[in-house]
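Purpose: get a first structural picture of the assembly so the mutagenesis plan has something to point at.
Setup: two entries, given in the order below. No constraints added.
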Amino acid sequence: MTAAPPIVRAGLRGAALASGLRDLLGSEKVLWAREDLLLYEYDGAVDIATPDAVVLPNETADVAKLARFCAEHAVPLVPRGAGTGLSGGAIPVEGGVVISFARMSRILELDVANLRAVVQPGLVNLHLSTAAAPHGLYFVPDPSSQKACTLGGNVAENSGGPHTLAYGVTTNHVTGLELVLSDGSIVRLGGKALEYDGYDLVGTFVGSEGTLGIITEITVKLTPLPEDKRTLMAAFPTMDDASNTVSAIIGAGIVPSAMEMMDQLSTQAVEASVGAGYPLDAGGILLVEVDGVRDGLDDLLERIEVICRAAHAQELRVATTALERDKLWAGRKGAFAAMGRLASDYYVQDGVIPRTKLPQVLRHVIDVGERYGLRIANVFHAGDGNLHPLIMFDGSKGPAEVERVKEAGREILEMCIQVGGSITGEHGVGMEKTCYMPLQYSPVDMAVMHRVKDAFDPLGLANPGKIFPTPGRCKEFSLNAAR
Amino acid sequence: MPRVERPATPEACADALRACAEDRRSVRVRGGGTKDHLGTRRETDVMLETAGLDGIIDHVPADLTVTVRAGMSFAALRDALAKHGQFLPLDPPHVARGATVGGIIATNSNGFGRYRYGSVRDLLLGVRVALPDGTIARAGGRVVKNVAGYDLNKLFIGSFGTLGVVVEATFKILPVPPVAKAASATFTTPGDAFGAADALVRTSLRPTAIVVERTEDRRWRLAIAAAGEAAPVDRAMAELGRLAAARGASTEAIGDPEAALGPLREIVDAATGGAVVRAALPLSAQTAFAEAAVRVDRGARIVADAASGIAHVHLRDEAGVVAAADGLLAKARVLGGSARVERTAVAGLDPFGGPEPAGAFLMRRLKEAFDPNGILEPARSALG
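Result (structure tokens, whole complex):
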């Protein structure tokens, strides 16, 4: 863990801020004691910063009041869902108030007739699918953290998950938003229909990581549950074989609902902790799931098996019951947690590459690991070309070790960009990757993004220090930053 | 007559925009010229044609992505991809008349396949846009997942050229499915037709088209198409038969899906008189909207993408068309949707009539930031 550089510009801090907020909202909605604040200084990534105060709103009006107050006193606003984010999005790097949505976590409307749900931002992702299941519906995006992460966080980060290959990421499933802007105004955008007049501000907002405003209500699509599914585990001697299989399956016109890959190091960690039944001697493992109507599903599976065999699969196992399927998935979903068996700390990277570059880039990842003397496991959304190298390290060695780990991560991302990819596929830029933005975008590109920032948040108080490179913080790159 | 500019490169396009901005000359952007009916017709100083920005820049079949210049016609792109057994799964109107990739993005022009494959906003991975300040900005990327920075693709889709000119675009593409079939069933009430459509939407059959049409003999015909492997496609056809039988209707197979769906897709081009109202509605509001359309014009022709809640109503009774259109626009809003007049030859009809869109103040700030001199596409969009 590393403390963020102290670039705090909150205009009101300490006791004055706490008493102002208590007067404004009532003390039951404000946390200000040091021991309480410490619980909000970290998320799922590696950076930390302590908030000046935490506010737990009950309703939109509380958020609007808070925003007006903060606008008046130049206090940054940092929304937070469950704190599972992997890029430091919820870290108050410039000080200010963290808004926790723990008390705004209800489903406001399950509109089965229109295949929509209207929810509060603090709702846990999985709770929505659970509530919709009796109606034969579910919410598609399923980040690995879906038992904890919230819809507000999903929208802010434009989260993905294993099952977004065929059905899209969060932005493809959001049709309406209610926002509180940093000046305290409340805006409702979109609704239950697919289109509304004017610019698509809903689409523009999704994935903006809290930097354009605060989400207070979300309208999402619900999707009919597939009638049936088939899940296949295929084990290969090498990662190259597994990678080539991914391209061959997609190239054959098959779009599985999920296609996940794991290397040997991951498999071994998973087997030690979950016991999913993955073969320990395989160089690479693919989990492939197809779903839809029952008709033809077995034929489809057979075609996939033929492709796997042609690519040297050493073992194929089809889950025939829900129990077996859950077991195969338990390994994948528990993979990050299982890494705890291999190292005290790990740093998850999140780069995207064209699928056909998988073999080349995975070899580069191995090379980076060898050069840095760091063990790197790969567990990722292969069908999307979305890599998640997990770089293992020992945090007790101090900040220099963390910097070395980040350097290794940067080398991996540089390769992703070199082959035409992206520095983040689903975890966001947050504060972690602000300095890498210039790898992917020109100063003009970022200046144009900043026009959008300025239109929504002219005060610059909405989650400052995220997405855009801050010159003082990005030493090693020459930056004409965003403006 | 406006002066015609036809830049041959993105840079020339950006330069032309900057020159117009400096001289405060108003600009209309034109691709294939197939959507001149959209918005208010107001002559501009300059007609900026994108025809010079043509061709595929990059196509890696195995990655299932393609990058093209925005002036390329959709038909040419379709033909080029077909040579590799692939397709861009958009089925917008006006393709035969020359609709371009850029125009399709700028107007968010979609077809019936959006329920199965997604719309422009789901398939567009990245764009390059020439801006009135003479710069060219890139948004998104060339890979299928990317959350680095803001998703400005969404801002430009459906912005009617009011913020900048799309000069290049990257899309997700797919292999052409092996089997495609279509069938239809005709009902006496809109409730039955939309009801059967809704039942299909709630399965995992995922047809490529679920279209309700009000026929000349004032009945309600549900046409569906499905594509993919033979077994699920056959199951979709069987399911339509079952749903139709339950409502006392019988089904007819359609030999050539495209021949049947094509005319439905082109309801706007076919409407030479009266007015066409286009509504985007919550799914369950479609029956009520169709009934309202018939109330305001007994001869109304209606084509609804029932899987996505996008309805086109051709009001043919010229005498009452202004009141009928205004009434329908209001009805769509009351039902929780949105609507605009897509095409009319009748004076006095405001294409976007009614209140400003939600968040209009934000949209104005964006317009001001991208096009401070207000040169691009005056009066073309809902913001006036």
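The longest strand of chain A covers residues 228-236.
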